[in-house]
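User: Before I run my own analysis I want an independent prediction to cross-check against. Here's the chain; please return only the C-alpha cells and, at the end, one sentence I can use as a sanity check.
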Amino acid sequence: VVLLEKESRPGGNSQKASSGISILSPENGDSEEQFIEDCLASGRGLCVPELVEALVRNSRGALEFLQSYGCDLSSSSQLGGHRQRRTHTPQGGPVGWHVMSKLQEAIKDDTESSVKITLKTDAKERLPHTQTQTHTHTHRHIHT
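Assistant: C-alpha cells:
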C-alpha cells in the first residue's frame, strides 16, 4: 500500500476533523434503518442510497478496526441530523488528530508493514486499478 500525501506531513484534512465518526450504535437504541434514513434526509437527495447503506453496514467494522490500533472512540453524542447518539469521539481531543496519530504510530511501529507513505507527492492522474494475483497496480504521473 502506498499512501500519497501532497503535504510535508501526513494527515491532511483528516487530521482536522473535529465532530466525530458516526457509527451504528444499537446500544443507544440505533438501527440500520434509522441511520440510513437520517443520512438520506440530511443529504437532501444528493446521497447514493447504496453507498449510504454500505457506510452504515460497515461502520461497526470501521470502529473495530480503529480500536484495534488503539483509537479511543468511547464517547458518543447525538449531533444534528441524527436521531440517536451515534457520533463517537475520543475523550479530550479532536477525533481527526487522534485517529491519524494512532494510525501513523501503528505504521511506524510495525517493522513488517507494507504501507509506504510518500510526502510532498503530487499525483496528476488517477487510473482504474487492475488486479493481479498478488498486487493491485495504479500508477502513472506521480511526482515527488
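Sanity check: The radius of gyration is 18 Å.
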